Amino acid sequence: MLVARIIDSHVHLYPAEVSGNPATWAASRSETHWGKLVSPRNGRPSLQGWADIDDLLREMDRSGVDRAVLQGWYWEHQETCDWQNQYYATCMKAHPDRISAFATVKPSAGKAALDAIRRAREDGFSGLGELCPRIQGGALSDPEWVEAMTLAAECELVVLFHVDEQVGRDHAGRMRTAPEDFQWIAEACPNLRIILAHFGGGLVFHRLNRGVKKVFDRIWFDTAASPLLYDSAVYGAAIACGVGDRLLFGSDFPLITRPRRSSLPAGGYDWGRPEMGSHLNEIRGSGLSDSDLSRILAGNAADLLGLHLGT
Hints:
By secondary structure, the chain is of the alpha/beta class. It has helices spanning 16-19, 22-28, 32-38, 53-63, 78-94, 111-122, 133-136, 143-154, 179-188, 197-200, 226-229, 234-240, 277-284, 290-305, and strands spanning 7-11, 67-70, 99-103, 127-131, 158-161, 194-196, 219-222, 247-248.
């Protein structure tokens, strides 16, 4: 196998002030949706794992990942977006050879969001994301969102949207997403480069629809959390839909994507540690060609984001 370089294009990080007591932290910032996702549900702990920058670098070394692209969260307040952007800028500055990042904004915040987009460009961020109109307020067709996306394109920032699957197992983070909204914004902002997370909630398979094939040439997809959502045949199926040059490996680290219940006293749960390797092994074992593996695991992200891995 010839694949030697790996870019994980979908990673999240939170400093110790968050991971120490996430529910309390979320309440202090009125980040209701995020707080729900990281809190226990029906007696079970959240699948959200925790890692600081040192934990991430150790896991990257363990799994053979050359570079990680930090993704922000779709926060409900621009102030929280600014806080995370500052943290990510510090991570990039400390490890420029290993860490890239997307900034996050709340487009419905208007001028404050536009100012944050301009700062993101100046501070060396590769894009904006994750964004999610349903949680952050408004719709992609709202003037504030269109203005923000237009500015992102002018600043040559790629935009990543969180997209949920429309059918299947119920979970705390699942919400109704209108697939046609992404077609609309891609047509309204023809210079905008878009990534749809989590295989676009299945939208990747609409690449076969002749009516959207042209606009989909400006849309990429990532594999974030796919072991939780899809059979391993999803990688080959996506390639068969013609997105071999539009699919990016993303682990969603430190989310626990392969939860294993441990036998703890009183029926407790221990999902295991956050890791990237099992997701990588699933992709490697899915029957893809070396050429497709090379593109998915590094080449596509390097081309889209202008990343250089050296020799």
